[in-house]
## 1
Amino acid sequence: MILPSKFQDETEKSDKPSPPLDVSVAFPQATPASVFPPSVSDYYRFDDLLSPEEKTLRMKVREFMEKEVAPIMAEYWEKAEFPFQILPKLADLGIAGFNTEGYGSPGLSITTSAIANAEIARVDASCSTFLLVHSVGMLTIASCGSEEQKQKYLPSLAQLKTIACWALTEPEYGSDASAVNTTARKVEGGWIIDGQKRWIGNSTFADVLVIFARNTTTNQINGYIVKKNSPGLKATKIANKIGVRIVQNGDILLKNVFVPDEDRLPGLNSFLDTNKVLAVSRVMVAWQPIGISMGVYDMCLRYLKERKQFGAPLAAFQLNQQKLSLMLGNIQAMTLVGWRLCKLYDKGKMTPGHASLGKSWITLRARETVALGRELLGGNGILADFHVAKAFCDMEPIYTYEGTYDINSLVTGREITGFASFKAPGMSKQSRL
Ligand SMILES: Cc1cc2nc3c(=O)[nH]c(=O)nc-3n(C[C@H](O)[C@H](O)[C@H](O)COP(=O)(O)OP(=O)(O)OC[C@H]3O[C@@H](n4cnc5c(N)ncnc54)[C@H](O)[C@@H]3O)c2cc1C
């Protein structure tokens, strides 16, 4: 290629472009998120509602995330790679599996689990998604598995020595999750699984894959434990995501995969059995946006105090204060809804509609909160180095997974009206073709 002479001169001076300036050198007016800001969003003293044990765990998780994850998260998010080096220290927190009980699992209360999860999401939503998917896999084995399966799989999963994933969604069936097309055919000594799964978190490296497939004899959905490297199993990373980029979401192909009888989950005999797990995971997912909003608020408050325009800190301007107040109000309200959800769950009074309203409403408010935060940081609001842009993008998949905003609204709608409106009116089988 012939370059114009001006550019030729430049390339001759040096054959390598200079590396980008470190953001703290390039922009010294504000501290980047690798040094995470103090937690300052607990305006209504939610902490007062927590037990000493809950407070201690909260601080332990917060310290781990700020010290070990905050300094590296922007780099790994940008590379869309998983930082495997954090696993031993993450395992030391003793929270993998969250409220899963027994067999080395932590058996935390749902409140403690939710608070720990929010603390992780405050610093990095991908890290929280990774642990959540893993824990949902554990919970499924604990609640639907045989004694032998629990003994065999749970202890090493609890120590993060092995990793799990949870595979329900398929390319053709997302919101319409119960329509599962993947099949499980009974053969001598086991099952043959055929089909495809999409979006499955951790699946590219998971040791234990919990797969949902339709039993061709009963036509019901069953659960199977498929092991890494099983012949016929292939998981390929989905590239070019705009959110939770650290999470390795995969497309899974299952071609003639043999699963021995001892790896079929005996307690998972229909789609209704997934509700045992989905109730918990919906509450846990509802706490991710709370944590994300907390981190964004913390970052914004520090940034606005540090950065000056028109001769004053940005924090001194009325419009910016109004946005901060709105964000802080959202966080107080989201936290109290999330808290109440945990308490209803504890008392066995949480309905599917409650969980869905919590998840949908909290994600809506969090989406507003992170969008305000993105605005407040100006140009740096689109840089992962200042956290808010990353959190803004991470909110998008969370708004969509574990049931989209719409689907969760419809679950609540069905409960409060008595009418299910998932299916479009007037769509006969024939007109669908
Ligand atoms: C980052 C990420 C991680 C994920 N991790 C996992 C995982 O680990 N395991 C797993 O099994 N799945 C996972 N999922 C899948 C996730 O649960 C689905 O993406 C989600 O359920 C939505 O399905 P879909 O993407 O096919 O959207 P669709 O179902 O195609 O929906 C598209 C749009 O149509 C709307 N819509 C659909 N049906 C209706 C209706 N009846 N009425 C009104 N509106 C409707 C939806 O709300 C949405 O806005 C993940 C997804 C993402 C993005």
## 2
Amino acid sequence: MAISASLRWQIFSRDGFKCCYCGKQPPDVVLEIDHLVPVSRGGTNDSENLRTACMACNRGKSNNLPSSDLLNQKPIPVENLEEAAEQTAQFCRYLEKKQNEIQRLTTLVDQYWRMKTDNASLDPKYLSPFIVRFGLRAVIMAMDIAINQNILDGRYVFGILRNWRDYGLPSHLFSNDINIDMEKS
Ligand SMILES: [Zn+2]
């Protein structure tokens, strides 16, 4: 009987999306499900009989012997796999939410820049990491420094931010409450 997509997912999750024989992970390898006892010899689709293996190891094209620690571990029962899968899903939703929030803040900061300077947008690819690192207030402060000096060039703003990243925030400009709390928003 074919292995269902959800069972594949559970086995891959249990084994950490890693080949149990050689330890390689996507995108270096394509993962498959290996039957410890082959189906042809009566092996079942019970989770205890299934291992994550890369294509090369699974099809015997690799020299790796099935002796890794992972293989000696007692497999996790399926009830726990469901819980692990649910936690993985929750974690993905959390990351997605966080990503959306970073995007929202980046747009806000960029709007501030365009409003004050009539200039083109700042590249979110460069802007977002600084927002994550310093928070809104510090990034806007860097923009204000550029605006006050009438250097209305995004590259100057990023130069200031890079200086702060490499040499530390100037303490005279900031109190210690500049970091936004992503959890609250
Ligand atoms: Zn492998």
